Amino acid sequence: MADHFDIHQLVSVFSWVSILLGSFFVLVGALGLVRMPDMFTRMHAASITDTVGAGFLILGMIGQAGATLITVKLVFILLLIAITSPVASHALAQAALYKGLEPFLSDDRRERSLSAPPATASPATAAPATAAPGTAAPGTANNGNGEAAAPSASTADNGRARS
Amino acid sequence: MSADPMFIAAAIAVLLALSMAVARVILGPTVFDRVLAGNSIGTLAILLLAIVGFLTGRPEWLDIALTYGLLNLIGTLAVLKFFRHGDLAYDATEEPGP
Q1: Of A43, A50, A131, B73, which alpha carbon lies 20 to 30 A from A162's?
Q2: What is the domain range of residue A65?
Q3: Rounded to the nearest 5°, which phi and psi values hold at B87?
Q4: pLDDT digits (tens, 9 = 90+) for B26-78
Q5: Are residues A73 and A122 in the same domain?
Q6: Please, which residues have CB within 8 angstroms of residue B10's CB and are 6 or more apart in sequence?
Q7: Is A40 a domain residue?
Q8: Residues A94 and A49 in one domain
Q9: Residue ranges of domains in chain B
């Protein structure tokens, strides 16, 4: 009896910690949705809400529900979010690039996405001079694109910059 | 559902996130910011419906959350297609893609 009570308590504590973590990440994602400087960086913040926040919240609710039909429905909701959120993000980024919305840190992506196919040019020809000093200035806010702050490393990694 | 305060805290967090997303919908410079914030509102509404289901002790709210998730995807894609092509009946085979 005591052993069963201990396992129940452990699951309960785990689910509460998970729900607290999910609430924290939901708030972080929403704060990034307000504070980020660009649409594409805001997409990064919104994806935090969709993946980590919803994942931890639903995991905590599963721990609270136990092995019932509620758990099955919660798993379905988690799968639905995990499938539809990347689809919506992909369509959103494609539509925004198609309509000419420029990303915050690089001016190459729109040209690359609209006209040029994925170029197989050698990365040595990618001129590092395409990054103006204005683009290298907000180096502390480039979490959304995941690129390095050095503009030469960024263009050399892509290999698709305008030559 | 003996320990309600954690669900109340989660509901308050989700409501705060919803208010921030609504602020982004109002402030958004482009229409894509608004669509992004609308999609985020949909996800947060799913979570809020699930939490309310636990708060009230009625798991029927989870069915509403599932339906809301499906409608959220369809609505987001329809709005994006309209603002990308200006037409919901756009045929992608008529011209080469971008």
Answers
A1: A43
A2: 2-98
A3: -160, 130
A4: 987 888 899 999 999 999 999 999 999 999 888 889 999 999 999 988 888 88
A5: no
A6: A19, A20, A22, A23, A57, A60, B51
A7: yes
A8: yes
A9: 5-85
The per-residue pLDDT for A108 is 56
Number of domains in chain A: 2
How many whole angstroms separate alpha carbon A142 and alpha carbon A123?
22
Is some CB atom of chain B closer than 8 A to the CB atom of A16?
Answer: yes
In a domain, A104, yes or no: no
Q: What ipTM, to 2 d.p.?
A: 0.83
Contact criterion met (CB < 8 Å) for A69 and B54 = no
Helix boundaries (H) for chain A? 2-35, 39-48, 54-65, 69-98, 109-114, 133-136, 151-158
Binary contact (A19, B32; C-beta < 8 A):
no
In this structure, the answer to whether residues A28 and A72 fall within a common structural domain is: yes
More confident residue, A105 or A65: A65
> What pLDDT score was predicted for residue B6?
86
Mean per-residue pLDDT for B89-95?
A: 66
Q: Which residues of A touch B54 (CB under 8 A)?
A: 61, 64-65
Interface contacts (A, B; CB < 8 Å):
143
pLDDT tens for A8-42 read 888 888 999 999 999 999 999 999 999 888 888 89
Of B26, B96, B17, B21, nearest in space to B51 by CA: B17
CA-based nearest distance B43→chain A, Å: 7
